[in-house]
Design goal:
The complex is a heterodimer. By secondary structure, chain A is mainly alpha-helical. Chain A has helices at about 1-35, 50-55, 60-90, 95-110, 110-120, 130-135, 150-175, 180-190, 195-205, 205-220, 225-230, 240-250, 255-285, and strands spanning about 35, 45. In chain A, strand 1 and strand 2 (about 45) form a beta hairpin. The longest helix of chain A has about 30 residues, at about 1-35. Chain A starts with a helix and ends with a helix. The two termini of chain B are about 30 Å apart. Chain B is built from 15 helices and no strands. Chain B folds into two domains: about 10-55, no CATH class; about 60-275, Orthogonal Bundle (MetI-like fold). The chains are: A mainly alpha, B mainly alpha.
Chain lengths: ~280, ~280
Amino acid sequence: MGKKKLTPYLLIAPYIIHFGLFVAFPVVFSLVLVFHRWNIISPMEYVGPGNFIRLLGDTFFWQSVLNTLYFILIHVPLQLLIAISFALILNLPLRMLGVFRAIYFLPVVVSGVVVTILWQQLFGYENGILNRLLTYLTLPRIGWLTDPDIAMPSIAIMATWKNVGLYIILFLTGLQTVPVQLYESADLEGATAWQKFRHITIPMINPTILLVLVLSTIGGFSLFIEPYVMTGGGPLSRTLSSVLYIYKQGFFFYHMGYAATMGVTLTAIILVVVIIQKKYVERNT
Amino acid sequence: MNLKRLSGIKKTAAYIFLFIGAAAFVYPFIWMLMASLAPEKDIASFALWPTSIGLGSYVQVFEKIPVLRAFLNSMIVSLTVTFFVVVFSSMTGFALTHYEFKGRDAVFYIIIFTMSLPFQLTLIPQYILMVKLGWTDSYLALTVPYFISGLGIIIFRQYFKTIPRDLFDAARIDGCSDLKILFSILLPNAKPAIITVAILTFMGVWNDVLWPIIVIRNENLMTLPQLITLFAVGGKAESQLGVKLASAVLLAVPVVVAYSFFQKYFITSMASSGMKE
């Protein structure tokens, strides 16, 4: 009998050990790190709230937070809009829908590095496809990655292209749960297409909207590889994302305490943003 | 809405929209492939078809960086992690569904809590842990921290819930040990869950760049995306577009091939990564 009681604990033992070593310890340790200055090699030096004071005055950090929020502000609505539009059409009784779905999903499975290297060429100033198209239409060229005001929106467009396929599928799944009877009774009352969309579809797929909102926001806060490869954070630090800045502080300068402080602060910011989103979506439906 | 017939005009409009979308997703990939095959002087100017085609850029990539070695590293790392995630997730998911034990709910809440922790919080201390364990520049750093997946546990837990208890009880009466029940009776019946967890894990590890860049500095241990990233960012590509794009194609090909064979599994699996709620 004693042996039977032990079995579940043996089964979860790998999880518990892993949790202790790779989750609990790092979380607790990061709370120690924020009060220290440390480059891993020399002994830790206690600095009290020094890291937070430094953080408050670090314009690069706040710039990186603003850059990341700016990215999210463009990327998330764009993603929602495009994903819903494609999902609505893919939900119509048409042919070859499976093929289209598979094509839209392609960039989702491909590594972000591939997409970034590819779009770096598409965004090229002199000979990039996008600027050649603009020139062909006799429009002025755009400094997609070189104009400080445009570089981040460009990255947001690319990220949308990369990820939107996943969100199309999520919305499609959501749309298929809406009972057809709701539309039929709305038809009987003479509702327009827009009214049906606004008063039936939107409320019914509300959980999906929230999910997509939260997932793509958290994804936005993880922005790293795109600016790392494309711009290195420039021009004028306007594409310096928070994770890229943490990376630079941690792994270029070995400011472990300070980088951990930024990680903790960023976590708090993410939490606040996600809670606000949840409240907002729940209230508006 | 679904049942109603669409008018011809609406139908045409819908198809045009879908085709434009498809072109926007496919054309860049085709251009990349053609550019990687084109002579360097051509790349800047062609839109669809270069004047001539050759493998010169690929030869250069293979000469400059250890692509095959990196591919092998990526395979070793991704397969190892996938194997352990499936084993450990199924064990934990099994314990959470078929046993009553003290602390079961606590474990479940810990799993949910852990899943909602952003990686930005643990990135630095996890790196320090790797340094202190002496795991940097080894496969250990690339694999062991990924052996547990909260989402994997949740997926197996959901799936095991649908397997009738009778199957489990009958096996027990026959004298099977609990581990044997899990690995020889439940798991073979849990293919959909295994496929989902395996694809999600494999793709996540295969495509990850940030963690490898941090813990691996030795070129011979680098994963393929890491190697290609550093190749593109560092000076080794010598601003030769064709070579850069060829390296990107090499990175994309294994995934695209796998995707074209198992497309349905990829889509359903990756879409289920959104079922955290």
